[in-house]
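User: Please go through the entry that follows and flag anything odd:
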Amino acid sequence: MTRTTTATAITSTTRNTTADPLVGTQRTSAAILGADRKTRQDDEPRTERAIDAVDRQLIDLLRANGRASYAELARQVGLSSPAVHERVGKLEAAGVITGYRVVVDPSSVGLDVTALIGVSESDSVDDTGVEAAMREVPGIEDCWRVAGSEDYVLKVRVTDIPALEATVNALNRIRGVARTRTTVVLSTKWEGRHG
């Protein structure tokens, strides 16, 4: 079986790649790849801004290659480098572009197990408390609030099955979590497809 999985870590808009230290001893994707960094604080309001065809083209180009220089982007959209720099800055300030990512092979950094975990809440629970507690659990890369039999679906990357078991146990200890359902990923056919 070949590994085709990828992991993402957000870097700052200035494209620095230093990582914040992470609490915990378990090797997880966040610990290995770096904690999330965003261009806009979650509590800052988004600025309403019309996105035109050039902005969409810049977004598509940056999604394909977040390391593209302003000069390269300018060549591809037919604008000057300063004009592209200004447009990208406005997209970042408006919260349209929220960060830049580096894609690595998870197994090369020791993250050999990927799982999707469905989380069901108790009937009388504060969503924000559950979400805040899940944010602190090592190994959780993504969290989606969903409709269906579960309330959340989490993507988890860890080193091995005992680390996955520890993650599931940590989730089940969160006040307000009624149950979890874990699906272990056997192989990834594609991930993070942008086109």
